[in-house]
Amino acid sequence: MVKREFLNHNGSLMLVKVQLAAGFKGEVDQHPEEQLSYIEKGKLEFYVNGEKRILVEGDTQYIPSNVKHQVHVLEECVILDIFTPIRQDLVESQ
């Protein structure tokens, strides 16, 4: 389960709150926007450019432009994702 809440998108920044259920395995993702993820709650494996990190509450993960990444949720998660520039594909999907 993935639930997105668009908190703000102005100028060249976008803030999205993402809730992910335990056991969720995301598809490999890649986009031209830079991304910074803050783990508000939970625990997950974050793969960025083939490197695995375990992230827990309070951790952050930077994802450069056009770098492949993927998540495996170990415990229910709430993530705050910041994108620059704004991800138009997400805005259009809301």
Any overview of this molecule?
By secondary structure, this protein is mostly beta strands. It has one domain (2-93): Jelly Rolls (Sandwich). Helices cover 6% and strands 62% of the residues. It is built from one helix and six strands; from the N terminus they run ββββββα. The protein has one helix spanning 88-93; strands at 2-10, 13-20, 34-48, 51-56, 60-63, 69-84. Strands 1, 2, 3, 4, 5 and 6 form a six-stranded antiparallel β-sheet that branches. A hairpin with a 2-residue loop joins β1 and β2. The protein is globular and about 35 Å long. It starts with a strand and ends with a helix.
The chain-level mean pLDDT equals 95
Structural class of the helix and strand makeup?
Answer: mainly beta
> Can you count the helices?
1
User: What is the CATH homology-level superfamily?
Assistant: Jelly Rolls
CATH domain topology? Jelly Rolls
Count of DSSP strands: 6
Distance between the termini: 16 Å
Could you say which overall geometry the principal axes of the C-alpha atoms support?
A: globular
CATH class: Mainly Beta
**Multimerization state:** single chain
Major pleated sheet: 6 strands, antiparallel
What is the total domain count? 1
Gyration radius (Cα, Å) is 12 Å
Order of helices and strands: EEEEEEH
Query: What percent strand?
Result: over 45%
Helicity range: under 10%
Structure, briefly:
The protein is 6% helix and 62% strand. The two termini are 16 Å apart. It is built from 1 helix and 6 strands, in the order ββββββα.
